[in-house]
Amino acid sequence: MSRKGLSLVIVAVVLTLVTLGGRASAAPDDSLSRVKASGVLRWGADLQGGEPYVSQRADGTLVGFEVDIARAIATRLGVKDELVQNDWSTLVASLERGTFDVVMNGFEITEARAPRVLFSRPYYVFAERLTVRKGETRFGATLPELRGRRVGTLAASLAYDTLAAAGAEVVLYEGQEEPYADLAAGRTDAVLLDDIIAQRYATRHVELVTAGDLREGVYAIAARRSDHALMTAIDDVLADMIATGELRSILKHAGIDDDRERKLETYGQPAGGSVSIGESSAEPVQHFGWHHVWLFLQGAGVTLVVSTAAMAIAFPLGLFLALARTHGGAWPSRVATAYVELYRGTPVLLQLYVLYYGLAPFVRLGPLAAAIIGLGMNYAAYEAETHRAGILAVPRGQMEAAHVLGMSVPLALRRIVVPQALRHALPNVTSDFIALLKDSSLVSVITVVELTKRMTITSVDVRGWLLPGALCAALYFAMSFPLARISRRLETR
Amino acid sequence: MLEIERVRKQRSERWVLDGVSLSVGRGEIYALLGESGTGKSTLLRCVAGLEPIDEGAVSVGGRTLFAEGRTVVGVARRVGLVFQQHHLFAHMTALENVMEAPVQVGRRSIADARTRAEALLAELGVGSRAGAYPAELSGGESQRVAIARAMAMDPSVLLLDEPTSALDPARRKGVAELLLALAARGTTLVIATHDIPFARDVATRAGTLEAGTLCQLTLREESRAPSEPT
């Protein structure tokens, strides 16, 4: 396709996306009747959130206080409830595109979210709890003292906003267990998370203690901004559940009821508590600006460093493995084959988890080092196959000619076979490197903020995926395209 | 110079070489005749050390190279082999091909090896092609470079596998003269070929492999007439 043709297609795709995005606001509000007609209230949550929110028993049944609340609401609306599993970080995006009717998953009311969704009145009041290692004396349990400290929390949470505003060095995790494991391992200074998470997960580590509660927050149900009728009905149900004490008994059953929950009676009523809800809070939307571009460039820098350093491990290690397989004799060949099959046959995500969290008691790697080593060792398996193909593509006669001239096998490999094999392997090595550039986004699970992670964080901040997504794609392309060009030039030589 | 004693070699349950004995003197050219598949190449590969022999022994200049399948002495500096396909190192120029073994194996200085390689290429008539890569060489040029590469290690015995297979008649004559010149300087040559007229032109003696054993032929007694075009 010509360059002009390509840009026309991109313009068309962008226009289509913009048009689709604008459509929802024009539709009439039939949200409540739509749910009643379908007979199902679909609510989005991430099972990875686990206890006490939503989790799955071994027999597949769902448990958790949010499961009970959803069921109670649905029953009162005269419909069934259905949980739709969705990654936590993309709950709002999925809500907006209509994957489910509401979000209910420890979803805090924050200033950033308020303009984007419609919040119900709160159904739970929690505290942001600071957890530290025993004997921590360098700082106390106040926000100003966290400035410059490495503090772990979950992405797109109220705790994250709080920490970022306080000037802490925020380390982001995808699940609840990892921040505490990392704190226990000494990789961070503290963890700030909701008290009901800290109760469940921090207490598993005997070396951790609660430093104090820094602020309060509330969980509420979120619906699309257009779905006023549905939200009004949900609010009515919640008000009734609070008045009759049904909500508190659900919380008590889950073991998370406390004095703070008395505030539920006043929060969200017309007189208004400290938390304002819904349309009334007209926070100025954070616009995608130059400082985001700068952050993206930094993310791209991390991506480039991780990928290049990982390839610097994968390339020679892969060559070594390939030579062990082709010329190493029985045992080295077997070991190399096992390595290749093990690393190719298991997900790189799992390998990163094992390297960073699983081996933490024995080898304490920093996130960047773990990312580079993890990806490097994984890609070595693929490079081994690429190199092996390259070595096998060198005719046998080359080795025999070297042998007849008196060259030993190592000498013949070094002087004759490998130089030719590398030429055969080069196009595939480049293609692997481009794949590695993109796979490096996986290292965000071990708290490295690279380009894709920066994009997902920013898209939450600016409430939109299109512009951050386009910039992210452009940066990846800007990194991979020159590589493809260089490879093509080298190939023709 | 080259002594082959009762060499046996089994391949997929068949004795390809079944007691081959041969003695070739210094400066002699011996032609191994026969159609393909009779074991000519296998015998050359065994003598060159590319394949182990199962029984028997090979010696050069009184030194035993192989006995009972084991390599006794590094064969490289005594026996050279020019492959039918030449197998020049594809990533090196003609000159680098010739210099490679003297520098890497023979521990010669690069300057030394270069002078010698340039002289060899010039002597073989491909001096002007020193900077060319194998892919840029014609069949005849490639063969001469391959011979130069083998000769650079000063072998006492040079083995050539089908040296005329890719050549037109004019080139064949050139190769014949070249081999005679090498023999005249004392190199022992063994040529595997199915080109009987060529063998008659260069060889002092000849033999053919039949059912794994060597039968001596008397080349000179045969009439030269049939091969000459009338």
Characterization of this structure:
The complex is a heterodimer of chains A (493) and B (230). Chain A has 493 residues and is of the alpha/beta class. Chain A folds into three domains: 29-123 and 220-280, Periplasmic binding protein-like II (D-Maltodextrin-Binding Protein, domain 2); 125-217, 3-Layer(aba) Sandwich (D-Maltodextrin-Binding Protein, domain 2), CATH 3.40.190; 290-492, MetI-like fold. Chain A contains 17 helices and twelve strands. Chain A has a five-stranded mixed β-sheet with strand order 4-1-5-12-6. In chain A, strand 2 (55-56) and strand 3 form a beta hairpin. In chain A, helix 13 crosses helix 15 and helix 14 (396-404) packs antiparallel against helix 15 (409-439). Chain A is elongated, with a radius of gyration of 27 Å. The two termini of chain A are 25 Å apart. The radius of gyration of chain B is 18 Å and the shape is globular. In chain B, a hairpin with a 2-residue loop joins strand 1 and strand 2. The longest helix of chain B has 16 residues, at 169-184. Chain B is built from six helices and eleven strands. Chain B has helices at residues 40-48, 94-104, 110-123, 139-151, 169-184, 196-202; strands spanning 2-11, 14-24, 29-33, 55-60, 63-67, 70-71, 79-82, 157-161, 188-192, 205-210, 213-217. By secondary structure, chain B is α/β, with parallel strands linked by helices. In chain B, helix 2 crosses helix 3 and helix 2 (94-104) runs parallel beside helix 4. Helices cover 30% and strands 28% of the residues of chain B. The A-B interface holds A 395, 397-398, 400-407, 411, 415-416, 419-420, 423 and B 48-50, 74-77, 79-81, 83, 85, 87-91, 100-101, 104-106, 149-150, 153.
How is the CATH topology of the largest domain in chain A named?
A: MetI-like fold
Report the largest inter-chain contact. A-B, 17 and 25 residues
Runs of chain A in which pLDDT lies below 50 for 5 or more consecutive residues are 14-26, 270-284
Can you summarize the main beta sheet of chain B?
6 strands, mixed
Structural Rg of chain B: 18 Å
Secondary structure tally, helices of chain A: 17
Count structural domains of chain A: 3
